[in-house]
Design goal:
By secondary structure, the protein is mainly beta. It is built from 1 helix and 23 strands. It has one helix at residues 242-269, and strands at residues 16-17, 28-30, 34-36, 44-45, 59-64, 75-81, 87-92, 95-101, 106-111, 120-128, 131-135, 138-141, 153-157, 161-163, 168-173, 180-185, 193-195, 202-204, 213-221, 227-228, 235-240, 272-276, 282-286. The longest helix is centred in the C-terminal third of the chain and has 28 residues, at 242-269. The N and C termini lie far apart (80 Å).
Length: 292
């Protein structure tokens, strides 16, 4: 496989971009492939700033489903917070739009019949007691009418359920000879993985629990005029840690055996025997080994 020609890579699909990086500061990274001078499109800088203080709540923002959206399409902007109860406030271009109560740490803002007016930068604020406690990075949502490629098909090898440490291959198949594709993981707020047109698939050499989730892909072609496909079918990858599962089973099995042993010991302790007594009578007394 040859080197990647980054000049043919289009502007990234919707993803989270740190607000303070949406400037012309350099260097910035284009798809994590090579540095380029400051970009007016707000691509990602090499510096990451997630939270200024340890233990503070964090907020992430992502699209469900992910990807570039056609006019008339629909999607949902999700704000996820590792925090207690409160509200999520959705902003666009610094302008407050809507407020939703967090439920199980998430608030959703659906968008239907999307137009170019819906495109642009979005962010979430976590609000509790009237005070903003955390801000998400910025999600750049793209709406375009250039959907002319066939929809790709995503497959996962060797299976959708694998053991931790296994090698997993994602294959995005499209009937177009010069299409590159992006691999999306729902809920991920970093740039999607890129499958170059000279590649057949994307590989994870050793999967772990953090790789679990719902995957899909979307393809594009062209340079000056970028044409897109729709988003593929989605597949759920499950990673099983069988080593930990076996440890849990052994512990539970040992606990059951100990419990059964205690029950048997208690029953033997309470076992009484009928013994003969003087003048043809009888009496009860605790059994001994010789009387059993």
């Amino acid at each position: 496989m040859g080197s990647v020609d980054t000049s043919l890579v289009p502007r990234p699909p919707p993803r989270a971009i740190p607000q303070h990086h949406r400037t012309n500061l350099g260097p910035v990274w284009r798809w994590g492939l090579e540095p380029s001078p400051g970009s007016p499109q707000g691509l990602v800088s090499v510096w990451q700033h997630l939270c200024p203080c340890a233990g503070a709540p964090t907020v992430s923002i992502f699209l469900k489903p992910p990807g570039v959206i056609p006019p008339g399409g629909s999607t949902t902007i999700c704000c996820s917070c590792q925090c207690a109860d409160g509200n999520a406030v959705l902003y666009k271009d610094g302008r407050r739009l809507r407020t939703r109560e967090l439920r199980d740490g998430r608030a959703e803002f659906p968008i239907s019949n999307a137009t170019q007016k819906d495109a642009g930068p979005y962010s979430c604020h976590y609000l509790a007691g009237g005070t903003v406690l955390a801000r998400s990075e910025t999600l750049e949502m793209t709406v375009t009418a250039e959907f002319r490629l066939p929809r790709p098909v995503l497959s996962v090898l060797p299976a959708l359920e694998v053991a931790a440490g296994a090698r997993v291959t994602f294959r995005c198949t499209i009937t177009h000879p010069r299409a590159g594709c992006f691999l999306y993981l729902e809920g991920q707020d970093k740039a999607p993985d890129f499958i170059h047109k000279d590649q057949d698939d994307f590989n994870l050499p050793r999967v772990h629990k953090g790789n679990e989730g719902r995957y899909s892909c979307q393809c594009y072609s062209g340079a000056a005029l970028v044409e897109w496909s729709g988003v593929s079918n989605s597949l759920d990858l499950v990673v099983k840690d069988y080593t930990w599962s076996n440890v849990v089973r052994l512990v539970l099995g040992a606990a059951v055996l100990v419990l059964l042993g205690l029950i048997v010991a208690e029953d033997r302790h309470r076992l009484w025997c009928i013994r003969p007594a003087g003048r043809g009578g009888h009496r009860t007394a605790p059994c001994t080994q010789s009387s059993l």
